[in-house]
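P.,

For your records, the input lines for the assembly:
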Amino acid sequence: MRSANRSDGRDGLPAFFWAAAPFVVLILLWQLVVELFDVSPLVFPSVPAVLRAGLDGLADGSLAAHVGASLLRVATGTALAVLVAVPLGMAMGTQRGIAAFFTPLLRFFSVLAGIAWIPIATLWFGYGFGAIVFVIFNAVFFVVTYNTVLGVSTIPIELRRAAASLGAARLAIVREVLLPGALPNIVTGIRTGLGFAWRGLIAAEMIATSTGLGYMLFLARDFYRTEVIVLGMILVGAIWLALDRLLLAPLERRTIERWGLVRPT
Amino acid sequence: MKELVVENLSKVYFDPRLGERVTALDGVSLRITPGEFVAVAGPSGCGKTTLLNLIAGFLEPTSGRILLDGREIDGPGPDRGVVFQSYALFPWKTVLENVAFGPRMRGLPRAECEARARRWLELVGLGHVANRYPRELSGGMQQRVGVVRALANEPEILLMDEPFAAVDAQTRMTLQEELARIFEERRPTIFFITHDVNEAVFLADRVLVLSKGRLREEIPVPIPRPRRWAALVENDSFKALVGRVLQAVRTA
Amino acid sequence: MGPGPPDVTALERLLGLWLRAAERWRILATLGPFVPLLLLWWAVAAIELFPPAFFPGPLEVARRALELAWKGILGAYLEDSLIRLLVGAAAGIAVGLPLGLLLGLSDRAHRVLWPLVLFFQAIGDIAWLPILIVWFGFGLGTMTFVIVYTVMFPVLMNTALGVRSIPEVLPRAAASLGASRARILSEVVLPGALPNIITGLRNGLGFGWRALVAAEIIVGTSGIGFMMFDARRAGSVTEVVVGLAVLGIVWSIVDSWILAPLEKATGERWGLVAR
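Structure tokens returned:
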């Protein structure tokens, strides 16, 4: 129930404050609990310990290396998946029969997206970059293909015909009609797929590599370095939040607002 | 301007659900001379939309030929502009971008395309909505844009598929008069599909009656132009012609 | 854009037969596409395009699945996984639903807690595993926590969303008809938010299922995920593929036969369009 006088800027404070304040309170509470109950650093770290771990990681460059490795894997796997999935989805989506035929297959493999592929990926590609990129590719590929097919097949055939009768060649139809028409679905697919991929990445890095955020987390566990674990968790959350809220969600909202919602019937 | 000739055209579909062939069009022949307005009237399912889709090149005939200026057509092309019942405006393009689409596909420079699109929009009094998106316009306005988009591409013939069927009765009459005015001023060649007998007689020089995939009758409309509803509603020869076409549609 | 051929070809006849059959038995439309896939898989395995040790054929996988089922391993592991999911999901709902109601009903709680919710949701189940192992060791506690955590957030967030999207007039109408606060909650707020709650449940279980597999792979001592990783350690690709197939089939059944119809039913009954 949204009350009528709900006003976010009532106190004249910027929205940033309202987003940051709960975290400040949480961090203070955390430190208070650790000090009051004298929590062992083997169970949960203190705030300064996590800060120190972060600064140490920054100083010796290991933090940047882990984060960089993770991001590179996500970027590679996602880029490959999107590059293959979008053209394939378009080719399938333009033929109604073919689209209907492949939909159950795509749904099935979307269900398996990501983590479930880790064991077989490590068998096929060995431990390392290849296996992890494969897991991310899988998480993104099927979801994006499925959504592209969905997007293209909801474009009214009249729009394709109109473009053709105005002199558009095949390639121009793809660029001017199919791509913009399916874009809202494609972006939704990428957002969902990346969500699975990010989880899959962390899981895969715990098992199958020697760099990356997931590895950093899992290695720290071996030495009971809880401050490094908590630092890693914060980074995993913050990076995903930034990626999702600052990049993917606005992109999705913009494409849907601009042309996704209203389609000629 | 070029002549459109349809020779002994047939279209047979395979319906996978029924598992059998369905004849949509059966040996249709017709000829449209440059500057002529030809309407095809008939009940739904008579094959009139199939005929238009064949001429537009969206479908391929089972047998027979379609010639434009003596050359057989090959798929859709900018020489045959199409106006759709559902408007088929690109929702992610502004009105101006929609109208400039055809010229742009011909490879004209962007500035020239937009100038031409703007000129056409002004011509029909739509200059003020050039930068709006189609969804922000009423159905009648959208279809005006649809007509202008087809005209701005300067096709040899305009193919119109029940273009005014989806707008309200009041707007429909306005749009019909506008189309009549454009036709009187510029004399494009128009092939017009409708199930509305009044509309067919009001607009066309010639009405073809189609039924069960065959051409049943051809009725010339010798009513002088300009044609306006106010003058024609009570006109006896108009009423007589409407009656004749209606009779032909019913008995066909 | 492709024009149809002039005559009824054998291919068209086949297509026609297929469409009519698929319309009568809907299960065919779902399962049919897997037939060519299985054939392709079989063919690729049969010509040994990849070494058989890396790429087992469907027959081999089926035989191994039957063996595992016969020995009772497959059933026991599947049971373990599903029970963990059920227990975790029930707990996740028990925590997520009241919290979601709170965040939906109170603007103040929403403003203060929503950023935290977004952040902790973003950390994701799997990143918790290392510290959970430190706390609970390799075992049930860790896995239960992960699933509860994963299921909780989608339920919480969708419940709050659902409550906040109930038109203001409905609770007011109920209040003016003499309903108490508790009655408004049970008669207006909960039913109004139910479609969203079910959507959250569906998403949450979907994520929870994946998290469970990950947890079983990393910390497990039983379950389908553990079976897959155990097989991987032993280098048995066949068993890994068995696990993959079982995961996909079980979840497809649960999702499309239980969760999706449930979501559709509530969405339709309340006249809302489920997205």
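Two observations worth noting. Chain B is about 35% helix and 25% strand. Strands of chain B lie at 4-15, 20-32, 37-41, 63-68, 71-72, 80-83, 157-161, 189-194, 206-211, 214-220.

Regards
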